[in-house]
Design a protein that fits this description.
The chain is α+β, with helices and mostly antiparallel strands and about 160 residues long. It folds into two domains: about 70 residues; about 70 residues, no CATH class. Strands 1-2-3-4 form a four-stranded antiparallel β-sheet. A hairpin with a 7-residue loop joins strand 2 and strand 3. It starts with 7 loop residues before the first helix and ends in a 16-residue tail after the last helix. About 15% of the residues are buried.
Amino acid sequence: MTRKAFTIEEANETIPLLDSILAELDTMKASANRISQQLQIIEVLWGESASQPTNPDHGEYTQLRHSIDEHLSDMDGFVRREILGRGLRFPVGGLEHGLIDFPTTFDGRWVFLCWKRGETAISHWHEIEAGFRGRQEVCAEHHITMGKMDHGQIDDSRLDD
């Protein structure tokens, strides 16, 4: 599989779309949270017997369990299609903190352009292993070189971590 190395300009052009994708994820997450709260109420009322067929709320409990599983599956599919399917990385904490990484190349290696929801443009990048805490500011050199070199010869196996 050939990886796309995003330029800073390409990443910036994607930000409005990412804002709408994350807004949709917020809606999906809120719906899943409402269902989860309903499940918790039944579990508090009935304890371990909430899942028993003899429980008066068993039908509702089973329906809510199915619904939460469906919501989580829908969210997973949405992330795979709308974020990962675009060649982007959704790191741990991505949903909670609005983080998305764009693979790019710099000085003969893969790195990530790092975007956080609310930022109007890409202003930081980090090494693959560094994560958000290792963010460094983008400078003029980065605008000239990132994502613009032939990346066919660069090992991209670490991008899947």
